[in-house]
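User: I want to check something. If I give you two sequences, will you return the structure for each one separately, not as a complex?

Assistant: Yes, each is folded on its own. Here is the first sequence with its structure:
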Amino acid sequence: MNLIRIAIDRPIAVVAAVLIALLFGAIALSRIPIQLAPDVRKPIVVVETEWPGAAPSEIEREIVNLQEEALRGLEG
């Protein structure tokens, strides 16, 4: 009951305490990182093959077919 009596006798102190609590809450909310949502981006694999001066059929036979076999286990 003593706390209630002090709050009734000093309303300005109660308002100041509430404002300080709101200020600290706003500062904490702006500085604490929120990690509730996971990163849901799909991973992307990009493979570039360069062989200057080679014909497309040579690149396919010598390089691309081997790459496709090596990467066959990847989903998507």
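And separately, the second sequence with its own structure:
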Amino acid sequence: MYNGFVVLDDVVVDGFTLGKITDWEAEPSETGDAFVIAPDGSRAGLVWQVCDPPYFQEVMPTEATRWGVWGVGFLLPMISRENARTNLESILPQLKSRWTEWQSRFSGHR
């Protein structure tokens, strides 16, 4: 999933890499779509917005081919790769937890 979209190889936190569907670098946006690639190469979707307070919630459940789609609120605007990295870092604990659950639930089904 999410093949053909831009992977931001320089936006990596603890082995988790951000990919973008909405091109916030070409045209600034307060909302968008992205994805995260886990250290094992598996992916999850992100539906993001810039807001305060931040949040993290399920949009679509996990399945064998992807560890969910997550709605997230970021504090920082997506205007630079540095901000994108900080935003990814802010949701990393939740992402790691969901990824770990997915691995234990779907190992052997991929």
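Because they were folded independently, the notes below concern the second chain alone. The mean pLDDT is 94. The chain has one domain: 6-104.
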